[in-house]
Amino acid sequence: MTPLIKNALLTVFFIFGLLISLQAQDKYQFAVISYRTYGHEIGISINGKEFQKIVVPKEDIKHPSLDVNVVIELVNKMTNEGWEVFSTGNPTVGDWICYVFYLRKKIE
Question: Is 104 helix (H, G, I), strand (E, B) or coil?
Fold first, then answer.
């Protein structure tokens, strides 16, 4: 086999393998849920396009800076819909905390 044919075949196999591996990668939707204990607001952003703001009624809050049940319920609801929590965070500002949940959902 001449070097030119060998290089051409290797290039074709390399490109073919690259295309196969690109198709094998999982595709995901991403979401961020944040809950600020100051103001008791939940923000939901899905794929950077949809945004929803929920103000939690004060009567649903048992302790202003510690009660996160409302956001945990929302995260549980989304995980039942196929979302997966892959990271969390909780930056603080003084006595107030912001709970952040990063979720992803595999695109079928």
Answer: strand
